[in-house]
Automatic annotation (TrEMBL):
Protein name, as recorded: HPP family protein
Residues passing through the membrane, by range: 34-55, 61-78, 90-111, 123-142, 163-181
This protein's record includes keyword Transmembrane helix: yes
Domain of life: Bacteria
Keywords annotated in UniProt: Membrane, Transmembrane, Transmembrane helix
Domain HPP transmembrane region: 35-191
Length: 207
């Protein structure tokens, strides 16, 4: 009896997963409606998850550029910038360049620009961090637009402590884990690391 109940639960779970596939939903509703609902649910859930971890640990797991990352992961999950490789490497690069810019302009240990206002060293740090991050993302082929926000968050003094870097990256990793599970459940072949060059990034759903 117990085995049969277990089999029934498994069949129900598989049926639910099939019903949640975006292709199945798109056959009943418009593509725009399906994608809007998918982003509403998963964008909210992903940020709630990371925010809850931040609440429980009182650490900076949540930061503004994760919002842009969440949108990309659920709206264009098969695009190169949404791949785990680009997402992780982009945010890491942005944070490191932001820290580098703080040291170049002697701003380590200073209060953030939002507390003290913007001065010339802060202008230099912000400009250098974004310019260098953009340049290196192109050269290294790890483009992830939200990383541009991450480097400004650091260079403007909101996350100036190098000890915060592992926490920042843990937040990115948590968001990626949620995106992997939810995209796969929705029938989207979200990559483990890097999107293949021949993977179509549009037309995931029938028009």
């Amino acid at each position: 009896m117990g085995l049969r109940n277990e089999q029934l639960r498994w069949q129900l779970a598989k049926g639910l997963v099939r019903a949640l596939h975006l292709e199945t939903l798109a056959s009943r509703y418009s593509r725009t409606t399906v994608m809007a609902a998918f982003n509403l649910i998963n964008g909210g859930l992903s940020i709630a998850l990371v925010s809850f971890v931040a609440l429980e640990t009182q650490e900076a797991f949540i930061f503004p550029s994760l919002g842009a990352t969440a949108f990309i992961l659920f709206y264009v999950p098969l695009a190169q910038p949404a791949s785990p490789r680009n997402t992780l490497c982009g945010h890491l690069l942005g944070a490191l360049i932001g820290l580098f810019s703080l040291y170049i302009f002697g701003l380590q240990g200073h209060a953030s620009a939002f507390a003290t206002g913007v001065d010339l060293p802060r202008v230099g740090a912000a400009a250098l961090s974004l310019g260098l991050t953009s340049c290196l993302m192109v050269l290294l082929r790890i483009a992830h637009p939200p990383a541009g926000a991450t480097t400004l968050i650091v260079s403007l003094g909101l996350m100036p402590d190098p000890a915060q870097l592992p926490i920042l990256m843990a937040g990115v990793t948590l968001l990626l884990a949620h995106a992997f599970v939810m995209n796969r459940l929705a029938g989207i072949p979200y990559p483990l690391w890097q999107t293949r060059a021949d993977t179509p990034t549009t037309g995931m759903l029938r028009q």
